[in-house]
Design goal:
CATH superfamily of the largest domain in chain B: Glycogen Phosphorylase B
Radius of gyration of chain A: 16 Å
Number of helices of chain A: 7
Distance between the termini of chain B: 50 Å
Largest interface: A-B, 24 and 25 residues
Oligomer: heterodimer
Number of domains of chain A: 1
Number of strands of chain B: 14
Structural class of chain B: alpha/beta
Strand order of the largest sheet of chain B: 3-4-2-1-5-6-7-8
Structural class of chain A: alpha/beta
Mean pLDDT of chain A: 80
Low-confidence stretches of chain A: 139-158
CATH topology of the largest domain in chain B: Rossmann fold
CATH class of the largest domain in chain B: Alpha Beta
Distance between the termini of chain A: 24 Å
CATH architecture of chain A: 3-Layer(aba) Sandwich
Radius of gyration of chain B: 23 Å
Largest sheet of chain B: 8 strands, mixed
Mean pLDDT of chain B: 91
Chain lengths: 158, 428
């Protein structure tokens, strides 16, 4: 069983990185669904966390445009959800996800969509550590090359 | 009624609800430690204490996106199809804490933020009210507002104001109006410093009678003391944010001046902030780069390791509501050189020349140098008394002293306005 964190930005990076570390030390695989991987690594996110990045063509093209960007902002949450559905959601085996942890405000709409799509999925705003407290820290699984899912790999899943 | 229930409350009875925007959490493990300390100090005096921590989660600024976040949030936490339910956890300090994420917009609108906190808490409170005889709200516009909205009509409301940004809150008409409602309903208003009390009395003179000062609880007793007494003041340390308002740039200049005459001097700057890069460059220009060490901020419990390795805490801030670092340094048994920047002259009242030295706030580094020299002479003459200083701070801010005063306020008993324990100083 794994745990998936949803955080579009790094405003709550300490909570995500700390919780991920806690899980990895107990051998629990961790995914992070976000917009860009680099800022997370800069915040100290463990390399063993699989980062699934959401990117929309509109983000790249429309956001830098001052006029079009204003209109795009209105529909961006929906665009992000579509991106999440096409990209990250297909890369995760949700039946094996024990908890989906919504970890920043920006990710709340995606978390809500996810909760609707998977009625049995446990969704929360903070990691419930209780199920793992008995498990003494152990050596985490050796990361495989598949664990680092690049943008290209995600794109190929579309 | 509350007075009856709380009278002579030395055994555990009654319920206390605490509501606060600041409390240690996974994301901010060091935030609101004073709320934690105050709540822990009285936890055993009640049958049950519930703390509700509404934590700001800044979200999108765009109104349409913010509305979508709110709608999704509400759907997740409320209604028959709710998917997320906040749960209380029993803390090591003996009270129950519920962490409540609160989506807010980045725009600094305190009334809007208060409404967001109210909305978030409403989804969590069983029955929509605090089932408690006493409700203690921390920060008027946040916890105070929530106390007002969710306390039972017969509950006693106590509010503590800590906010260094109180002026900004009162400067916004909508948040000031909300604040006035809180002030009207509250039975007692506590401020962590005289400066904050003055601000509130000025804004709400009709309620001056219910506004008093109760400093933050600090667990002085458990703070580790250095093993060997300080013999000289060669190793200086600054602890805190490395930003202009803390006077760190003036400190570096002052250190360079003092080090010209005393090459054995050393300075450690412990903390993070925007000025770090510039100060490193300035240290090179001043020719003291070998004598100045910069260190990233550390967890509060590690601060004492650094204090014990130094001889003098220099805290040249321009403004402070309390000045926790100063208290920690005095508790650790080291002299302090601190500006009269608000909180510290209250914190160290009666201890100037005993715990260290108070100096005027100034942009002139020479003020710090002069203060250091006078303090060094006082140390050499044996005038400082770190043991007495620590004992005094424990009597003033220690958990037991603050708990006694808080219980008086909760029970509506007359409170000593000075609010400090007294100790007798042995002649040195």
């Amino acid at each position: 069983m794994s745990v998936a964190f949803l955080a579009l930005g790094t405003t709550r990076a300490r909570a995500v990185c700390g919780s991920a570390q806690f899980l990895l030390e107990r051998g629990v695989p961790v995914d992070l669904i976000t917009v860009a991987e680099r800022p997370w690594r800069d915040e100290g996110l463990d390399e063993r966390v699989r980062v699934l990045t959401l990117s929309t063509r509109a983000d790249r093209i429309l956001l830098p445009n001052k006029v079009l960007g204003r209109f795009y902002m209105l529909v961006r949450p929906y665009a992000m959800w579509r991106a999440a559905r096409r990209q990250a959601l297909r890369a995760v085996d949700w039946s094996a996800v024990e908890q989906a942890v919504i970890s920043d405000s920006h990710a709340i709409p995606i978390g809500w969509h996810l909760a609707r799509r998977y009625p049995d999925l446990a969704v929360a705003f903070e990691l419930d550590r209780t199920p793992y407290l008995d498990g003494a820290p152990q050596h985490a699984p050796v990361p495989s090359s598949d664990d680092a899912l690049s943008d290209q790999a995600v794109d190929s899943l579309k | 009624m509350v007075e009856d229930q709380m009278a002579g409350i030395d055994g555990a009875q009654g319920r206390l609800a605490v509501t606060t925007p600041w409390h240690p959490s996974v994301q901010r493990p060091f935030a609101g430690s004073f709320v934690q300390a105050a709540t822990a100090a009285v936890a055993s005096r009640f049958e049950r204490v519930d703390l509700y921590h509404t934590e700001d989660w800044p979200g999108p600024a765009h109104p349409a996106q913010a509305a979508l976040v709110r709608k999704a949030y509400d759907s997740l936490v409320s209604g028959p199809a709710r998917r997320i339910q906040s749960r209380a956890r029993l803390t090591a300090e003996g009270y129950w804490a519920t962490d409540i994420p609160t989506p807010v917009t980045p725009k600094r609108d305190y009334a809007d933020w208060a409404d967001s906190h109210e909305n978030a808490l409403r989804n969590v409170l069983p029955g929509g009210v605090f089932e408690a005889e006493v409700v203690h709200g921390h920060v008027g516009i946040y916890g105070g507002w929530l106390a007002l909205r969710f306390a039972r009509p017969d509950s006693r409301i106590v509010v503590t104001e800590h906010a260094s940004f109180l002026g900004k809150i009162l400067g916004q008409p909508r948040s000031r109006a909300k604040y006035a409602e809180v002030m009207e309903r509250a039975d007692a208003f506590l401020c962590v410093s005289e400066g904050l009390r003055s601000q509130l009395v000025q804004a709400f003179p009709a309620h001056a009678g219910k506004i008093s000062v109760l400093p933050n609880a600090v667990d002085v007793e458990s703070m580790p003391q250095r093993k060997a007494p300080v013999r000289d003041l060669h190793r200086w340390i600054y602890v805190g944010k490395v930003v202009a308002a803390k006077g760190v740039a003036e400190l570096l200049e002052a250190f360079a001046l003092a080090a010209k005459d005393e090459p054995e001097l050393r300075l450690t700057i412990l903390g993070d902030g925007a000025l770090v890069g510039g100060l490193k460059a300035r240290a090179r220009e001043l020719g003291v780069v070998e004598k100045v060490a910069f260190h990233d901020a550390v967890a509060p419990e590690r601060v004492f390791e650094f204090l014990h390795e130094h001889d003098l805490l220099v805290h040249p801030s321009k403004s402070e509501t309390f000045g926790m670092t100063t208290v920690e340094a005095v508790a650790a048994g080291m002299p302090v050189l601190v500006t009269r920047c608000g909180g510290p002259q209250e914190t160290l009242a009666g201890l100037d020349g005993v715990a260290g030295r108070l100096i005027e706030v100034s942009d002139d580094p020479a003020v710090i140098v002069e203060g250091y020299r006078v303090l060094a002479e006082q140390l050499a003459r044996g005038e400082l008394d770190p043991g007495y200083a620590r004992k005094t701070l424990d009597g003033r801010f220690g958990s037991a002293a603050v708990a006694r005063r808080l219980m008086d306020v909760y029970a509506g008993r007359t409170v000593d306005p000075a609010g400090v324990g007294t100790t007798t100083r042995e002649p040195v």
